[in-house]
Specification:
Order of helices and strands: HHEHEHEHHEEEHEHEHEEHHEHHH
Bound molecules: calcium ion
Strand order of the largest sheet: 7-6-8-5-9-11
Radius of gyration: 24 Å
Number of strands: 11
Shape: globular
Strand content: 5-15%
Number of helices: 14
Helix content: 40-55%
Largest sheet: 6 strands, mixed
Structural class: alpha/beta
Length: about 375
């Protein structure tokens, strides 16, 4: 063994020991490198660019992450159709065309039927209840398990609260009025409408107004007064029905490409966890604050006729919903576990909310 080789070995050893002794070993050097690395990501959405509330969720998420990370997570947001179409978001993020997406899980029902349970279930849980299930009732673990084979990591990232039943160009006075009704309504609600005799249509938000105005559809649901006012739906239909039986508190999702997620250092991952939770709450707060005045504008300034769906129509839709949701659970073992988890949590929270939230609302 030559002195030279010993010297090299000794130098490396000293370097390691020396660095280790001062708290800067190889692991720390790697962490330092990733602490300085800037990740430039694309975030594609199912919403028209800068649509109030729904579309501002991903914009605020990107801005929040930029500030939290001091610019290390630099995310550019694309509206529907700018990079890929609204309904291509899931596949595009799975394939890595973009690192991140924002939309609603029920848009992927054609690919994964049970995904709808992670956005909303007709006559199912409210926003408050969904958040309880997802974050403290096992829902999020099931959601991550469901998306894992697609290389995606989901996060709850927005909620509108209870929606409106929608905009109609014909009056709904009985079940007969649903026959042949061509309506834009996504998710499980669409399947329920179909069984009630209607014709559900799936359209992204950016195409809803034109379809309604041209008579391509007879009715549409969208969100609630604040978002519906922004889309101008009042000028394409006269009757505005409630309640939103089909979407009692839809959770929106942020999805992250799994490889991109795993490339992030732990602090940036924690920032995404925190920022999505913040947007999840923020959007619900914005809708709560703005729906009321938007509804007054719709009724007072745009002469919208506000109507409640008849009780017998609601009762029929509720019966059909129970069937549709139960059938979905039979599609595979994971779907069955998700269904059982959702239903068990929903039943428990419903019992308690009968004597808390619901009992209180009836007293005031
Ligand atoms: Ca909706």
């Amino acid at each position: 063994m030559s002195f030279g080789r010993l010297g090299l070995f000794g130098c490396v050893l000293l370097l390691l020991l020396g660095c280790g002794g001062s708290g800067g070993g190889p692991a720390t050097q790697t962490a330092d490198a990733s602490a300085q690395q800037v990740f430039r990501w694309k975030l594609i959405t199912t919403w028209p660019k800068n649509l109030p509330a729904l579309g501002m969720g991903p914009e605020r998420l990107a801005e929040l992450l930029r500030v939290m990370s001091s610019g290390r997570l630099d995310i550019k947001v694309y509206g529907a159709g700018e990079l890929v179409g609204a309904f291509e978001v899931f596949d595009a993020v799975a394939q890595g065309t973009a690192e991140m997406g924002h939309g609603a899980a029920y848009y992927w029902r054609g690919k994964i039927p049970v995904a709808a349970m992670f956005s909303t279930v007709p006559f199912g849980m409210t926003a408050q209840e969904m958040n309880g299930w997802l974050h403290y009732g096992g829902g999020m673990d099931l959601w991550r398990e469901l998306y894992a084979p697609f290389g995606l990591v989901p996060f709850a990232c927005g909620n509108s609260g209870v929606q409106m039943a929608g905009w109609f160009n014909r009056e709904i006075n009985s079940l007969a009025d649903l026959q042949g009704l061509k309506m834009r309504i996504p998710g499980l609600g669409g399947e329920v409408l179909k069984r009630a005799g209607g014709v559900p249509v799936s359209l992204p938000g950016g195409e809803v107004f034109t379809a309604l105005q041209t008579g391509a559809i007879d009715a549409t649901e969208w969100v609630g007064p604040y978002n519906d006012l922004a889309l101008g739906l009042y000028s394409a239909a006269r009757f505005y029905y409630y309640p939103g039986w089909h979407e009692p508190g839809p959770t929106l999702e942020a999805i992250v490409n799994k490889e991109a997620w795993e490339s992030l250092p732990p602090d940036l991952q924690a920032m995404i966890e925190a920022a999505t939770r913040m947007i999840n709450e923020d959007m619900l707060s914005e809708f709560t604050a703005r729906n009321n005045s938007a509804l007054r504008t719709l009724v007072d300034e745009h002469a919208v006729e506000l109507r409640k769906l008849p009780d017998d129509v609601i009762a029929r839709l509720r019966d059909l919903s129970t069937q549709v949701v139960a059938e979905m659970a039979e599609s595979d073992p994971l779907a069955s576990r998700i269904y059982d988890s959702y239903m068990e949590f929903a039943a428990g929270v419903r019992d308690y909310h009968r004597i808390s939230e619901q009992a209180y609302l009836e007293t005031r």
